[in-house]
Design goal:
alpha+beta; DHBP synthase; five-stranded mixed sheet; 20 helices; globular; binds fe (ii) ion
Length: 664
């Protein structure tokens, strides 16, 4: 057996391991529970252990490594040699470096099934000019040694991907972040991120901007953000200069709704021009798209409508989480003969879970009829954590790590946003729908197909149907769809069919199984801890149904520390009198099923850990923290919940056993 390892040193860093007929891949964040974790050469790579365990091999069994760096590969922190096992492997196995955009391109083209396609990659920023191949350097339109790729066009033919056109951003400055106001930007992804930073405070909050845009009006014309002329984007600083404060949502509302609407309109107009030129020039009928910008479903639908008859493919993880899969695809095609295994909904490996949970707080039932039972509970308006098989790769939950609900319930959106996801009111929810039922519920008249297996497209809900599925219709009358077939996912399809038979509604509300700011749950333990802390009624893990008993609360349980180490650093003024108020920072390392990364915690969490002593339950710890820090119950629960999700403690009364499923 030949094993190819793919490594993505980037934020949303991930590892993939491929044989000729199967790929397993996972992001580091799912295992170390640090959202969007950036993989570096010296990081403890739980994702590498995960992939090796999945295949039942060790590092020295790997035959080839393909890696990609989002950043400068010569930077010390990005060197794979910092990992001793990988360094040893490099002494006898080939290590191939490919650019960030080439890995994006490979993830889209080799998973598409097309023999011949145009490939377009657009994101914030990828690799520097110095890390590009000679062929890639030859097609850079803005040649410069200090440039970094941000928009690339490749041509895929058979097993070969050839660069066609590449745009660079100067000096690593995709955004010029400043202490106050909206950053200036110099890439398409940077433009959207700059607006995200201004409205929500984070460059990565682009999904929130997309959700907010339909609430606003267009205040600024596309040309005020960027133009596309002479094969290049020209980025403007006019809008950035107008926003000089650090007031965040929801302090400002109308102006920010309009800013979101305006930047979405700018993206729709100018990126479309870039792609139109590429399609016109190359005359290709198949188009593959990758890069974080293609998580923007609103733009994707503009594209699908503009090119009716063109076949588009966007992989399940077009953002940086999919880079490791692109890397292994590239490795597989190095022999110029192999067919690539599919980039599927399920890229993780399943855990064996037989409901081995001991706690008074839950009822636990293994049930061979769990699919119909779940459909019945959904019909009865329960909100359910749905955990099946291996996990999805990327930011979308597609029926393996999902929270599901009945889409016919009015105002369910607010309830889930408030008591389960803990996120902003305006955030919409998407439905999963039986694929063949889409034309009966959504307007598909002006598109050539209605497939959306990875939730990358939006459709307008048919008039007369909006009121029936109120919870999954956005303010502009559209829904972002995941279409499901029996071939794609038999278990999830059967659940949708069962719900359809009971209610006449062929769709379910589907949102990711996590809370705001947290990675999606990975292990059964993650799922149970999330279930205990949020307002979910039921959790279904494979064929086991867990329900909370009414008389119990998570506060009744006794936490036990789960720490490997805790290091407290003081700002010492007087060695004789070290005071708790002099703490500068606290670094901890939690114990988990996978190797855990060291992380820094705030002082509230540190105080919480000091009160965990294997005897006090949640109420008693809350009372101590209330006395000492004047926390109210909601503030305490926030700290308690976040610490639980970081694996800083487990519950004495809740013993969960789930083994990683070994290969047959
Ligand atoms: Fe990227």
């Amino acid at each position: 057996m030949t094993y190819i390892l793919g490594l993505s040193y980037s934020h949303n860093g991930s590892v993939a391991l491929a044989t000729r007929n199967h790929i397993v891949s996972i992001q580091e964040e799912r295992l170390n529970r640090i959202k969007r974790f950036r993989l570096t050469g010296d990081a403890e790579m739980s994702s590498l252990s995960y992939c090796l365990n999945s295949a039942g091999i060790v590092v020295k069994d790997i035959n080839q490594v393909v890696y990609s760096v989002q950043g400068d590969s010569t930077d010390y922190m990005n060197r794979y040699e910092l990992n001793k096992e990988l360094y040893n492997l490099s002494q006898h196995a080939p290590f191939i470096k490919i650019s960030h955009h080439l890995a994006h391109a490979a993830s889209a083209f080799f998973g598409s099934g097309f023999d011949d396609a145009l490939i377009i990659v657009v994101d914030g920023m990828g690799s520097p000019y110095t890390d590009l191949s000679a062929e890639e350097k030859a097609v850079c339109r803005t040649v410069s040694n200090n440039g970094w790729e941000h928009a690339s066009i490749y041509i895929g033919e058979g097993t070969i991907i050839s660069p066609y056109h590449k745009l660079l951003v100067r000096d690593n400055k995709w955004v010029e972040d400043s202490k106050y106001g909206m950053p200036k930007y110099a890439s398409v992804g940077g433009m959207y991120s700059a607006v995200a930073k201004q409205i929500f405070g984070g460059l990565m909050d682009c999904g929130k901007v997309m959700g907010l845009a339909p609430y606003g009006h267009i205040d600024y014309q596309p040309e005020a953000f960027l133009e596309y002329e002479n094969d290049q984007f020209i980025f403007k600083s006019d809008i950035s200069l107008q926003f000089t404060s650090n007031r965040r949502w929801p302090q400002e509302q109308t102006i920010y709704k309009n800013l979101a609407a305006s930047v979405q309109n700018a993206l729709n107009k100018q990126l479309l021009r870039y792609i139109r030129k590429a399609i016109d020039e190359t005359k290709k009928h198949n188009v593959c798209l990758a890069g974080g910008v293609f998580l923007n479903c609103t733009f994707n639908e503009v594209l699908y409508k503009a090119f009716r008859g063109t076949n588009f493919y966007i992989p399940p993880a077009p953002d940086d989480s999919g880079i490791s899969v692109g890397a292994v695809y590239y490795g597989i095609n190095c022999d110029r003969e192999s067919k690539c295994p599919p980039f599927s909904v399920e890229m993780g490996t399943a855990y064996q879970f037989k409901g081995e949970i001991q706690t008074e707080m839950l009822t636990i039932e293994r049930n061979s009829n769990y699919i119909d039972q779940t459909a019945r509970m959904l019909e009865q308006e329960k909100v359910i954590g749905w955990y099946q098989g291996g996990s999805e790769l990327g930011p979308r939950a597609l029926g393996h790590r999902s929270i599901l609900a009945n889409p016919t319930i009015r105002n369910l959106k607010n309830a889930i946003n408030h008591s389960i996801k803990f996120r902003e009111d305006f955030r919409p929810f998407a439905p999963s729908v039986i694929e063949k039922e889409v034309p009966n519920w959504f307007n598909v008249a002006d598109i050539s197909d209605h497939k959306s297996p990875y939730m990358h497209r939006t459709f307008r809900v048919l008039e007369g149907k909006v009121d029936k599925i109120n919870s999954v219709v956005h303010i502009d009358g559209t829904s972002r769809l995941q279409t499901v077939t029996a071939e794609q996912d038999p278990v999830y399809y059967k659940l949708l069919e069962s719900f359809y038979a009971m209610t006449g509604i062929p769709l379910l509300l589907n949102t990711s199984f996590n809370t705001m700011g947290q990675p999606i749950v990975e292990t059964p333990e993650d799922a149970v801890m999330c279930f205990l802390f949020v307002g979910l009624d039921t959790c279904v893990i494979n064929d086991t149904i867990l329900q909370k008993k009414d008389a119990y609360s998570v506060m009744d349980l006794t936490p036990v520390l789960n720490l490997d180490s805790c290091r407290v650093s003081y700002r010492i003024k007087n060695v004789e009198e070290i005071d708790i108020r002099d703490i500068e920072r606290v670094d901890i390392k939690a114990i988990g099923q996978w190797k855990e990364a060291a992380q820094r915690i705030d002082l509230l969490r540190y105080f919480l850990l000091r009160f965990i002593d294997t005897r006090r339950n949640g109420w008693e710890i809350f009372n101590r923290m209330k006395e000492l820090l004047k926390l109210d119950k909601n503030q305490f629960l926030l700290v308690y919940r976040e610490a639980a999700k970081q694996h800083l403690f487990r519950f004495k009364e809740v013993s969960i056993e789930a083994k990683f499923k070994q290969p047959n």
